[in-house]
Amino acid sequence: MDDAPRPSTSRINPVKVYGGGGASRPAAPKRASPVLAGILFGIPAAVVWALIVYFTGYEIGWVAWGVGALIGFAVAKSAHEPNASLGPTAAALAVASLILAKVLIVEFAAPAVLKQEILADREATAAMFLVDMRIHKSFSPEVQAALDQRESRPEALSEAQQYQLIQQLQSEALARAAAATRAERDRVVRLGVAGILDAMGFFGVLKKSFRLWDVLWFGLAISSAFKVAQSGSA
Known about the structure:
Layout: H1 34-56, H2 62-78, H3 86-119, H4 122-136, H5 141-152, H6 159-179, H7 182-200, H8 202-209, H9 212-232
């Protein structure tokens, strides 16, 4: 019989396991706030629309519809759960983005578009040269003398002489525009466009840029932003 002492089981400390309450769930990825997401999508969309107008010369209205839908999608995907405020938030951001696009179009795209339209029209280009020639007094000596006389003493010329003078001014402007180099035409028209836009003022040009079709496209854009954000949130 083995009389060797055996270790007491009361001295054996149980092994403690920490964090054994089950596998931890991975943290859900953080999302940007709906407002921030709408801004981050709305500003580039407005810039892209202005660039399209700048390079094409056309203000394609249905692009506004796409801008609204894109903002609604961004707002919806950034939301943690459906919320009744997502639709109005997306609609408000769509309005702000569309207004920003209009401002960018007026500031950067409108001068280039108007210049191209005038250069494509022979008579409109000649009208710009007529203004430039009057400023610099660069008509032929006879016509310039008659023009100076008309400006200083309007009564000195009869109606027939004034009409003939106008015809001569237009004829010389047409001839100068036709003989001008491409760079000179570009310079004269660019200065003329700048003068026109300065005379109209920013708000005058902005008001002129809004057309009846804009009401339709803007309405569709705002409606799309509202519906997409309201129904697509997750």
